[in-house]
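[Solved] Which block belongs to which protein?

Original post:
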Amino acid sequence: MGRYLVILGAVLVVVGLAWPWLAKLGLGRLPGDIHFTRGDTSFHFPLTTSVVVSLVVSALLWLLRK
């Protein structure tokens, strides 16, 4: 369990450091992402981005298990 937590932490650090380059790919602004703005309040829920990231991570984990 500890090993998986360390790997997850390392992946989160890498994604955090790579975020400026990932933002250029359009992640978080895909069609289907929900964004509402009303006055000074805004709400953003990256629905499509979440599905895409989930599919990519699932595919990578599936390939690593084989």
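(Second protein starts here: sequence line, then its structure tokens.)
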Amino acid sequence: MSLRQRIKQDLIRALKQKEPGRVSILRFVLAEIKNLEIDQNRQELDDQDLIKVLNSQVKKLSESLELFTKGRRQDLIFQTQAEIKILKEYLPEQISDEELEKRVSEILAQNPAVTRPGAIIGLVIKQLGNQAEGSKVAQIVSRKITRLS
């Protein structure tokens, strides 16, 4: 079953079970997907593109969560945390920080000629795909490069 079908089925299930929070975020994601398809001349997105949309939404919600925390808006904090949790159900499992550090070290060892942080980050993301957040990769790469300098 494709990721889109899974989201639609979960939306229907949430409607039947009267889960307004889940219904709201799933409808929003489906609308975002549809808007992106319209922008791309009605080409249907594959699962990898859908994962990018979901990652983008999680990132936006995480940024909002930081602002709500600074503003001490408990009602919005709980709602945003719930939405992030729902969206993460559809994303591939992320590798642990320890595993990510190990992979970054391996890539650095395999590519000693590559010294620019951006290039190393690109190599790591290319190899890991959606298994690690770009910001986490950048953080670990910069820390490793600093140690090597």
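Accepted answer:
You had them paired correctly. Confirming on the second one: The chain has a mean pLDDT of 86.
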